[in-house]
Amino acid sequence: MNLTLKVWRQKNANDKGGLETYPITGISEHASFLEMLDVLNEQLINDGKEPVAFDHDCREGICGTCSLYINGEAHGPDRKVTTCQLHMRMFKDGETVYIEPWRSKSMPVIKDLIVDRTAFERIQQAGGFISVNTSGNTQDANALPIAKPMADKAMDAATCIGCGACVATCKNSSAMLFVAAKVSQYSYLPQGQVERKQRALNMVEQMDKEGFGNCTNTGACEVECPKGISLEFIARLNREYLGASVASE
Amino acid sequence: MSTLDSKIPEGPIKDKWTKHKNDINLVNPANKRHIDIIVVGTGLAGGAAAASLAEMGYKVKSFAYQDSPRRAHSIAAQGGINAAKNYQNDGDSIYRLFYDTVKGGDYRSREANVYRLAEVSGNIIDQCVAQGVPFAREYGGLLDNRSFGGVLVSRTFYAKGQTGQQLLLGAYSAMCRQIGKGKITMYNRHEMMDVVLVDGKARGIIARNMITGEIEKHSAHAVVIASGGYGNVFFLSTNAMGSNASAAWKIHKKGAYFANPCYTQIHPTCIPRSGDFQSKLTLMSESLRNDGRIWVPKNMDDVMAIREGKKSPTELTEDERDYYLERRYPAFGNLVPRDVASRAAKERCDAGYGVNATGEAVYLDFKAAINRYGKQKAHLLGVENPNDAKIIELGEAVIEEKYGNLFQMYEKIIDENPYKTPMMIYPAVHYTMGGIWCDYNLMTTIPGCYAAGEANFSDHGANRLGASALMQGLADGYFVLPYTIGDYLADDISTGAIPTDSPEFDAAAKEVTERLEKLINIKGTKSVDYFHKKLGEVMWNNVGMARNAKGLTEAMDEIKQIREDFWKDVRIPGGMNELNPELEKATRVADFLELGELFAKDALAREESCGGHFREESVELDGEQKGEAKRNDKDFAYVAAWEYKGDPRDAVMHKEELEFKDIELKQRSYK
Ligand SMILES: Cc1cc2nc3c(=O)[nH]c(=O)nc-3n(C[C@H](O)[C@H](O)[C@H](O)COP(=O)(O)OP(=O)(O)OC[C@H]3O[C@@H](n4cnc5c(N)ncnc54)[C@H](O)[C@@H]3O)c2cc1C
Ligand code: SF4
Ligand code: FES
């Protein structure tokens, strides 16, 4: 395949940045999108130019590092995949492909296509845990049976990979889907009950502090989320938060 | 030749750990506040260690090259984690897990360590459940188990096909809690460039801030290396793109012995490569072998027809298929250990029976399982006389429930529906059993420097059983290091903070800066990947699944040559004081180019076949085991721990003789 790439280049956080055009030829449709970028970078290096910086690590859709906004969609045109799982067979020969970073003021660009997602870290640190120490004397794992449907729900929520596509895709830059996934996971489990209310309050408060926008229920996040995290968790978070705010008054 | 002191406690094996915990020194809580510990790595081993140490009161600094601790490559583990809980009441016990692990490791691991691992395995599951890890459950609400290769019990706990993710997020959440409290200082996007020794003790590290390029000095009273495995020395592996050997290699160069570098696990069920552009290989969890049957066509005509696209594998009758694992190993069948399954696939493909265009693929077929489950389900649901379509529909739903995300992953990559057409798989480099040598306390040969998780060599001998790495990482991090490190730190309670404005720190920082300058100033003509791929080719061809003296000797020379070319001709665009992924890669590949040579040297010295290490010169010549790997316990029942001497080929071997008191050495037979 031959393609024309329009790639966002930005030297550092303070640089204004802009799109550069790179033609690329002879790409296999079986290559992954990032392997296509590898080929581009090899070409740039051989031409004595600086390669395009992009985030990636596991390249199997689980670490949540890769984060490209492709032709106006977070993680590109395929559904329920991360950028690293996207394959070139999703594109047409001769197509022009726009490649940009996540855009949100809470996730500023560091260089080219790499953004700073540490806001997610701080939200997690505000309450994304169950306060239990490592002791070796915790009660036996089977002492507390958990109904399978509840355990499965918790697992569905826990599947979030923290990639930030939900934020990137939301016109309000809302992080609700991400926060909802974590809050919901623990809310389904007996172990999560003690801190349930405080957790919802603290994580939402931190989310607001980080400057993420409000959720207006457009549902765009669910569509682009590579892990299919469902909007129903946002509804659950709203209930958790409301319940907790009332209780704390 | 000096002897290594493994510091194995006295006494019967089942009492060693308890007794040791009672005997070792403790640091009182008030003093822990004045002690700093650096943990390099935030995977299961490093993440669990950092969280536990911080909970105990130590001041912890954690380092990861990713932008979040949650992205360490432990996240990618799919299949599960072992524990001797015996919830299935199938005769499992601590002893059996211990026995299986030592046997699975082909009798090349340290008994006392493995026993301890089995002993704490149950605690891991308790701990994780308490943290909110959503393990799979049965309808009654209790935890579910599956079985994994090489064993006859069902002791593997799992969370869909994302067990590593859930366990890591558990450890990460524990870390987050401590970061929030200020007990852990987290350094994301920081790469450890070297360890700093003061008076012979590990007292800190030099790290590079990967965003600004700044070279930073960090001090501590002890340093833990939990930086993962070095499978990427093969270029293509199931590791993450950034997985590297550098942290381990740097401490090796400063005095930590590197043990058994040649013990590599080549995993039988990975998605075959599809072209030159291939950047990494994707694992299909071994749990699939519970339900999938592995085969290639019996007749060469069918092989050719399939390769040319004239025939589909589904058209072949049972008679026309060679279920070679079931044929060769009737007792274990498709569940033989990984090394055995991988070599058997290679044997068939080398004989010409590979089923894709590259000739390097075999089938993993779920048809029988779909039928079996479909019938069971129909019975359960009370569907009378279900037709084939109904059975398949029900059976596929069961398979989807168990492996849905893996099947989806396969389909996205290969563009074929594995529910309908058998999966294609081929072995790929997956895990490194070798690593930094450490004693029973996990201390390396550098005082105050510890190694945990895949980075150390400790528990898996020459071959690791499935679902045991997650167990080991968490055991090291949650339950071993937090105890053993106190024994060493008890001497440091009045040392006070270690200053970084010392000649030792300055010299180490200068050395790092100069090396980076040197790399950037080569301004050659070829990319880092060019050299990495060349190294990978040599490793795969000569130091891969089957090795011989001639190939290994050649590999050592070739790797040396590639290394020399690299230092003359690599081209690294951009500068040092900015985010520069090519520079990051270059420093890692430079280390792989040294490690690769030691790897081949170690494989050459071990003139026996054991576990994942298969020497073509050492096979059984006759009897029932003809053609199988031949171990040599008389001459090689030792750990080869290499001391750095300037050039990888000049490394000096120290032997830790392995004693087997509680397990009788036997030939591994899965027939
Ligand atoms: C695809 C795949 C599937 C697997 N499935 C299973 C399974 O089902 N069951 C099982 O038991 N095992 C499995 N394994 C093996 C297991 O996942 C790993 O062995 C284990 O998770 C390693 O954990 P770790 O903590 O030692 O290292 P990792 O999780 O790899 O973490 C390494 C850490 O070190 C950091 N680091 C590395 N170098 C540096 C440096 N120079 N400076 C700073 N930081 C650095 C990284 O940032 C990272 O935080 C699987 C492995 C793979 C690759
Ligand atoms: S909710 Fe989905 S899109 Fe958002 S961070 Fe999690 S996985 Fe990514
Ligand atoms: S690189 Fe890990 S999810 Fe894409």
Report on this structure.
- The complex is a heterodimer of chains A (249) and B (671).
- Chain A contains eight helices and seven strands, in the order ββαβββββααααααα.
- By secondary structure, chain A is of the alpha+beta class.
- Chain A folds into two domains: 108 residues, Ubiquitin-like (UB roll) (Roll), CATH 3.10.20.30; 119 residues, Fumarate Reductase Iron-sulfur Protein, Chain B, domain 2 (Orthogonal Bundle), CATH 1.10.1060.
- Chain A has a five-stranded mixed beta sheet. Chain A has a two-stranded antiparallel sheet with strand order 6-7.
- The longest helix of chain A has 17 residues.
- Chain A starts with a strand and ends with a helix.
- The model of chain A has no long low-confidence stretch (mean pLDDT 96).
- Chain B has 671 residues and is α+β, with helices and mostly antiparallel strands.
- Chain B has three domains: 307 residues, FAD/NAD(P)-binding domain (3-Layer(bba) Sandwich), CATH 3.50.50.60; 159 residues, no CATH class; 134 residues, Fumarate reductase/succinate dehydrogenase flavoprotein-like, C-terminal domain (Methane Monooxygenase Hydroxylase, Chain G, domain 1).
- In chain B, 38% of the residues lie in helices and 14% in strands.
- Chain B is built from 18 helices and 19 strands.
- In chain B, the strands form five sheets. Chain B has a five-stranded parallel beta sheet, with helices on both faces. Chain B has a five-stranded antiparallel beta sheet with strand order 11-15-14-12-13. A four-stranded antiparallel beta sheet of chain B has the order 16-10-18-19.
- In chain B, helix 3 links the parallel strand 1 and strand 2.
- In chain B, helix 1 crosses helix 5, helix 3 packs parallel to helix 13 and helix 11 crosses helix 12.
- The longest helix of chain B has 27 residues.
- Chain B is globular and about 80 Å long.
- The mean pLDDT of chain B is 95.
- At the A-B interface, helix 1, helix 2 and helix 3 of A face helix 3, helix 5, helix 6, helix 12 and helix 13 of B.
- Bound molecules: flavin-adenine dinucleotide, iron/sulfur cluster (SF4) and FE2/S2 (inorganic) cluster.
- The site of flavin-adenine dinucleotide has 46 residues of chain B, from helix 3, helix 6, strand 6, helix 7 and strand 15.
